[in-house]
C-alpha cells in the first residue's frame, strides 16, 4: 500500500491504496486487504478503480444511513449497468412502497409460520445424510456442498411458491448478478453468455400464472392487487428477492459450519446452551460477512471521518472490514459466542438493511436445532475451498467430520 498525502480527486488528505480488491488473490484471502483498508484511515481511495472505500465500523454505519448523500439509485455496482433496477437499486421515495410490502411479507412473524416447513426440509436433508453414513458413529460430509448449498435452494424458492424446477439456475444467475457489482473482469465475462437467458427464465417463474397460490410470490401479486405496488413491478420484485436470498444464505450457512468446526470450544458452548443459536449465526455472519461489498454514488460532497468524498464518486461499502474493526469489537478475529454480535453490518444498515434476514435466520436456526440433536462434535476434515465472486465471500467446499450422538 502507498499512503500519500493527497488524493487526485478529493480536497484534503486521503490515504491511497493500490491493491485490487477484485483480484483472484484478494478474493481467495480478503482479510489482509480489509485490514489495510481499515487501518489506512476512515476513508481510502482505491487508485486502481478511482473509487473511495470505507472500512471502519463507525464511518461505514454513518455512510450506510446517509442515503440522501450516498445513493443506491444509480446502482450499487462500481460501474453503470443497464439491467433492470430492483429494490436494492432504488432510493426513497421510490424505494418506500416495495420495501414496505417485502418487510410485511418477510417479517419475523410471517416467517414463524414457515418454521415447520423449514424444519421438515432440514430433517429430510440431514436424515438423508445420516442414512448414507457408512460408519455408525461418524459422518464425513461437505458442509458447503451437501448442507449449505442444498437448504436455501430447497426452502426459499418453495416458500416463494416457485414450482420444482432446475433450482441450481437460481444460484448461477445470482452468482452472476452479484459479480456485476464489481468491475468488468473475467468473473463477469464468464457469466455473461447465460445471463440474459437465466434472467428471462427467473422473471417468467415469478409471473402470477406460474406461481403457486401461496408463498412470497403470490403475496407480492396480492400487494399489487391492493394497489401497494404496480403490477408491472411484481415479477421483478419477486425475482430480485430470490436473487438476493439464495447465494447469500448458502454462504452464510457455509461460514457458520466452518466457524463451528474450527472453534470446537464454541460448539461446546452452544451444546451447553442451545439458546445461543441465534447468537451463533449472527456471530458467524459478523465473522465471515457473506456480502463483502456494495457501492454507492455520492449525490453531493459527503464528509465522513473528516474526509470529503466528492460528488459523483463511487464509494465501496466494505462490510467485512467494519465487522472486524477493533475500534468496535473486542478481539474481532475471534469467533466468540460470549459476545453480543448484534449491530454487525453483515445485513447492512439503514433503509437498505437486508429485508430477508428473518428468512436466513430461520434456516440457520432449524439447521442448528437439528445438528444439536444429532451431532456431538464437528471437526474440519480437510482444506476448505473458496468460490470467487466479486462481492460475495463464496465457498466451494467445507469438508467436515461429524461425530454422531
Ligand atoms: C439487502 C446481506 C439474505 C433479500 C441486503 C444487504 C445486505 C444483505 C448486506 C444490504 C445491501 C446494501 O446495503 O446495499 C444478506 C445476507 C444474507 C441475506 C448476509 C444471508 C445470510 C437474504 C434473504 C433475502 C434477502 C434470505 C430474501 C428473502 C434482500 C433484499 C435486499 C437485501 C431484497 C434489498 C433491501 C433494500 O434495498 O431495501 N442483504 N442478505 N437477503 N437483502 Fe439480504
TrEMBL record:
Belongs to the cytochrome P450 family. Keywords: Heme, Iron, Metal-binding, Monooxygenase, Oxidoreductase. It comes from the Bacteria. GO terms for molecular function: heme binding; iron ion binding; monooxygenase activity; oxidoreductase activity, acting on paired donors, with incorporation or reduction of molecular oxygen. The keyword Heme applies. The keyword Oxidoreductase applies. This is Cytochrome P450.
Amino acid at each position: 500500500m502507498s499512503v500519500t498525502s493527497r488524493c487526485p480527486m478529493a480536497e484534503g488528505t486521503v490515504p491511497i491504496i493500490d491493491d485490487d480488491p477484485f483480484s483472484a488473490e484478494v478474493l481467495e484471502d480478503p482479510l489482509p486487504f480489509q485490514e489495510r483498508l481499515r487501518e489506512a484511515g476512515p476513508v481510502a481511495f482505491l487508485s486502481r478503480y478511482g473509487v473511495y472505500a470505507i472500512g471502519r465500523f463507525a464511518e461505514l454505519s454513518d455512510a450506510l444511513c446517509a442515503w440522501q448523500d450516498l445513493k443506491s439509485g444509480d446502482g450499487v455496482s462500481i460501474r453503470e449497468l443497464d439491467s433492470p433496477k430492483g429494490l436494492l437499486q432504488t432510493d426513497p421515495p421510490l424505494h418506500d412502497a416495495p420495501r414496505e410490502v417485502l418487510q410485511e411479507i418477510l417479517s419475523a412473524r410471517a416467517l414463524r409460520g414457515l418454521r415447520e416447513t423449514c424444519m421438515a426440509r432440514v430433517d429430510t436433508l440431514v436424515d438423508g445424510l445420516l442414512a448414507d453414513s457408512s460408519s455408525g458413529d461418524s459422518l464425513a460430509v461437505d458442509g458447503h456442498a451437501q448442507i449449505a448449498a442444498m437448504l436455501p435452494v430447497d426452502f426459499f424458492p418453495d416458500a416463494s411458491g416457485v414450482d420444482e424446477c432446475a433450482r441450481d439456475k437460481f444460484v448461477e444467475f445470482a452468482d452472476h448478478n452479484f459479480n456485476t457489482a464489481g468491475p468488468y473482469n473475467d468473473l463477469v465475462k464468464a457469466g455473461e453468455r447465460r445471463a440474459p437467458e437465466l434472467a428471462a427464465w427467473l422473471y417468467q417463474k415469478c409471473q402470477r400464472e406460474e406461481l403457486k397460490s401461496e408463498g412470497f410470490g403470490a403475496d407480492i401479486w396480492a400487494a399489487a392487487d391492493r394497489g401497494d405496488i404496480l403490477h408491472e413491478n411484481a415479477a421483478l420484485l419477486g425475482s430480485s428477492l430470490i436473487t438476493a436470498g439464495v447465494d447469500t444464505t448458502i454462504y452464510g450457512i457455509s461460514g457458520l459450519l466452518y466457524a463451528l468446526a474450527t472453534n470446537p470450544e464454541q460448539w461446546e458452548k452452544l451444546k451447553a446452551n442451545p439458546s445461543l443459536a441465534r447468537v451463533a449465526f449472527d456471530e458467524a455472519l459478523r465473522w465471515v460477512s457473506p456480502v463483502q461489498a456494495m457501492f454507492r454514488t455520492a449525490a453531493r460532497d459527503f464528509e465522513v471521518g473528516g474526509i470529503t468524498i466528492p460528488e459523483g464518486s463511487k464509494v465501496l461499502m466494505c462490510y467485512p472490514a467494519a465487522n472486524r474493526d477493533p475500534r468496535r469489537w473486542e478481539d474481532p478475529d475471534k469467533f466468540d459466542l460470549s459476545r453480543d454480535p448484534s449491530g454487525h453490518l453483515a445485513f447492512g444498515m439503514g433503509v437498505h438493511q437486508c429485508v430477508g434476514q428473518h428468512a436466513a435466520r430461520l434456516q440457520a436456526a432449524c439447521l442448528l436445532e437439528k445438528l444439536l440433536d444429532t451431532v456431538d462434535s464437528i471437526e474440519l476434515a480437510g482444506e476448505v475451498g473458496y468460490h470467487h465472486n466479486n462481492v460475495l465471500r463464496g465457498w466451494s467446499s467445507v469438508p467436515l467430520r461429524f461425530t454422531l450422538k
